[in-house]
Here is the input.
Amino acid sequence: MKRLLILALALALAAPVWAQELGKVTGLPIPRFVSLKSNSTNARRGPSLSHRVDWEFLRKGLPVRVTAEYENWRRVEDNEGAGGWVHYTLLSGSRTVLVTADEATLYRDANPTSAKVAVAKAGVIAYVDSCGNGWCEIEIDSYDGWTEAGNLWGVYGVEMTPQD
Here is the structure.
């Protein structure tokens, strides 16, 4: 019994913070990552068209983190913390990431000794196929390969942490 209690406590403490809160509108985790559908997306001060535009995102596919929900609006932020309230129709559930390292080498496998496929520069947006054990498989144009999750913004802490 004591071992079960210790195990339950350890699992509760190890649970990622991002998965503990669910949005009251969608029931999806808060925060979560989504991407922008348009090359021009207004981020407003509040969740309605009557609020002024504080920020304009100018890159289709840019990953953003949803931090709150209110009716048809989502509060989002980019990798630098800029953002505001965006109408849900301007967001996509397609997972993308932003390369934040100066260079991110893509490998054939999730192993730095495997063949190099390509090198992505900082600021490149890529689609995410999967992540685990500190690596993400991403697609950039016609290139598909694995890079360390620490090179990217738009993945959760649990995806970045190598597992034994």
About this structure: The two ends are 26 Å apart (CA to CA). The mean pLDDT is 88. The helical segments are 2-14, 157-160. The chain has two helices and 16 strands.
